[in-house]
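Narrative summary of target 7.
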Amino acid sequence: MRLPKYHAKGFTLAELAIVLVIVALLIGGLLIPLSTQKDVSSLKETQATLNEAREALLGFAMVNGYLPCPAPVDFSTNGAEGPRTGDTCNDTQGFLPWQTLGIGRFDAWSHHLRYSVTPAFSRTGTNKFTLSSVGTITVNTRNQAGNVTPLATQVPAVIMSFGKSAHWAYGETGVQTGDTSATNVDEDVNGSTGAGTTFFSRNQTSDTGTTGGEFDDQVVWLPTNLLFNRMITAGKLP
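Modeled conformation, tokenized:
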């Protein structure tokens, strides 16, 4: 008696092609969320670093009675606060002085944090700031119509990250990244090598057509009231 023959049926080339397309689509669908998750994680990490830097500045002021000078971008102080002429900082902007504050110096993309300070709040000696001192820094945003609107005025100090795009940022070795965009005018204000008294803080966007251009900088500032309250609590003011 003969047994019936069974033939194993394999996938055809067309079926294999369909399977490969489905697998590719599944993998692609996973990669997009993972990339987005990484960006969100980097934003949160940088925000935490900026908040820590603000607390470190407050702690420094509570101990010393003034804010530190920015660290020079040429690494001439190796991350310590920059030099003064008399009781006044030679520079009002530069790197966050990470050595002086004892904290990290980079954002999540390994770029140095920028720091700008009002001269009146960084003076030492008999000219330390008082309750009548006024900041010279303004932090702006844009309203729904795209118009410039102040978020904070008379600010003593600002700390910021240049974001993932890194326009105007300084890398680990101190080399500055060039600005490859012609539309990011608000980021250009933040990256200015001028007085460092005007900054923008806006919702992040990659839309180059929005007023002010694309934007991924992260900016925090030291409010005057918060600084004064901490100084009063520490017995440094009035």
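The radius of gyration is 26 Å.
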